[in-house]
Amino acid sequence: MAGTPDFDLYRPSEEHDMLRETVRSLAEAKIAPYAAAVDEEARFPQEALDALVGSDLHAVHVPESYGGAGADALATVIVIEEVARVCASSSLIPAVNKLGSLPVVLSGSEELKQKYLRPLAQGDAMFSYCLSEPDAGSDAAGMKTKAVRDGDHYVLNGVKRWITNAGVSEYYTVMAVTDPEKRSKGISAFVVEKSDEGVSFGAPEKKLGIKGSPTREVYLDNVRIPADRMIGEEGTGFATAMKTLDHTRITIAAQALGIAQGALDYAKGYVKERKQFGKPIADFQGVQFMLADMAMKLEAARQLTYAAAAKSERVDGDLTFFGAAAKCFASDAAMEITTDAVQLLGGYGYTRDYPVERMMRDAKITQIYEGTNQVQRIVMARNLP
Q1: Residues 81, 82, 357, 370: which is the catalytic one?
Q2: Active site residue 370
């Protein structure tokens, strides 16, 4: 039909289905048993990292030419979704490895790709993304971190805030101002290593959810790095950062899908077992309607996310809209679904003895990071298909 937008869905292939079975089995056997303890103790899920690296699922997006699996965008979504179904904190390992390294994939020199993507693919290092600052969140172009040229080096000074997996990752994509007069066009991107002199980290944030994924400030105090660690040309860093988010917002949608699916699965099992008034509460129409709405929202979010993944793979012109839409819709759905799951479990749902309480807390962050859902709506409005 003339004038109709392309809503062509990326339907999972047999290979994608096999991947889902593999990741689900791994997640249930080697990640799920530790999820509650990871949350309770607010510790990094080392068991999940070991399991993911052991099965080459920690950074599946890395191209084969750099030793990676070369997985497409949908395969990456499936990995994150299935890990998030049992442990949201653990799903940030493959998700943030993509977020942190994608600027190098998109804009880095061949030398940078060889140097940093290979250790990532081999599981020898993780990658984080440093964009936000204390006074530059939604207004990322207002950042104050500076990079000053000094011969064949740059010297970086500043503070990055809300950095996922900070302190655990070896590598950091850092956005810094190289020309203060040009605002967003004066921002450049660099690879900073954890071992670089002058790099340090703040204390882990005490958070509502995703407690197993450390969130810390990254301090850059006269960090001197070779000029060839710049990602792309000077002044192109902000454009690379935004291009990266077009692709990686879909991974947050995937995380939201997984959290919501885990909550729905648990609630479905619970209502069949819980009896009141002489019969399972699953027999009451009010409960059935809640489950129906939860499943409907989840499936709508999944189809939108998979369609966005297809557009990410093809780098379609309307990717910006679809990436924002998938992240926004899926995270809103996850918050609603996990809240309803807690409601279905009643008083039990409100305790830490049952996983839906953790899932509800974990779901909240998906509405906030990689751009709040208010910002996503601004992005969508500016990029209507």
Answers
A1: 370
A2: yes
